[in-house]
Amino acid sequence: MGTHYQFDCPTCSHEAMVSGGRDCGMVAVTMTMVCRDCRDLVDVLIGAHDREGPTGDPDYDKNLDICPECGGRNLIPWSDKHQCPRCGSTMEKDDIVIVMWD
């Protein structure tokens, strides 16, 4: 089961509800990434059934490696330093699970 946490930037007030790294549900595999197109922090679909990459199902695979906010593909994995995609400050994680997803 995947989880989402609240991350907040104390400098610019940017906030995001994301997993914070690689995560898996029953089917979906996601990775928290910075979208350089919309400058947002998003969980991006990267695979299925605990494996990364294409599944062979064209309907599923068309959604891989795409920003769910803007549809962009200019994505980079979010670093362990948890830098804000807008100002570069360190974002703070609320350790309470906000959402559990499958």
Q: What would you note in describing this structure?
A:
- The chain is mainly beta.
- The protein has one domain.
- Helix content is 4%, strand content 45%.
- The strands form two sheets. Strands 3, 4, 5, 6 and 7 form a five-stranded antiparallel sheet that branches. A three-stranded antiparallel sheet has the order 2-1-8, with no helix packed on it.
- Strand 1 (2-8) and strand 2 form a beta hairpin.
- It is globular, with a radius of gyration of 13 Å.
Keywords for this entry:
102 residues; globular; three-stranded antiparallel β-sheet; mainly beta; 45% strand; five-stranded antiparallel β-sheet; 4% helix; 1 helix
Number of strands: 8
Output the structural class. mainly beta
How many domains? The number is: 1
Distance between the termini: 5 Å
Largest sheet: 5 strands, antiparallel
Low-confidence stretches: none
What would the principal axes of the Cα set say about the shape? globular
Write the layout of secondary structure elements.
Layout: E1 2-8, E2 15-18, E3 22-24, E4 28-35, E5 40-48, E6 51-52, H1 58-61, E7 75-77, E8 92-101
Antiparallel strand pairs: 1-2, 1-8, 3-4, 4-5, 4-7, 5-6
How would you summarize this macromolecular structure in one to three sentences?
This protein is mainly beta.
